[in-house]
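Most newcomers find our protein records easier to grasp once they have seen one. To make this concrete, we reproduce a full record directly below:

…
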Amino acid sequence: MARLSKEQRKQMRRVAQESIRQEDVFFTVVSPKASLSDCGPERIVADAAQVGVRLAHQPVDAVTHVFGVPDQIETYSVVIGYGQLDEDILRLAEDSEWLVEDRSPIALGIPAITFRGKVHTDPVIDFLGMTLCRVLGRLTHGVLVTGPNGVVNDEWLSWSLDYMDRDTFKITRVYDESCPNFLALADRFPLLRVPMPSK
């Protein structure tokens, strides 16, 4: 078999990187409160406003909803779906790092909200995902499942970053190699920001 040229190897690397960039990233929040009645779209929008973010909302069907940048939801958004913890989600979690002492609350059939977005394509989609993570932590106090090869974490304050600044735009994720400058998004998307009252 002929050896690939340097240019062919570079092209393959570019294709692989673009494929990763375009992948949907999935998160699932599991909790008895992860239901339409406890965490419906109106509550998500209202709670996001409490932490400085104005989310646009668009229903797809009864259990699927899109949240995104006001006036640009078609381009910049994250999709959530309401359901139950099933074997597919548990299978994804099997190879994850379980930061959970008691696994008994993680049972098949418990309410679950899964959200997905192409968070690597633009910092604002990353920010929307982080906002939903924060809001769902506040509303559910549940367990976050990221997988495969992710984490299963029941410390909602930790996984939702709700212990950090009350203004979501000012949160800096210390675990990132280079955290996006979310404050810059407020200039880029002024409708996304809800002014926070001064302390």
Summary: The helical segments are 6-22, 36-39, 41-50, 87-93, 123-140, 156-160, 182-188. The mean pLDDT is 88. Strands lie at 25-30, 56-59, 64-68, 77-84, 97-99, 111-117, 143-146, 151-153. The CA atoms of residues 78 and 129 lie 7 Å apart.
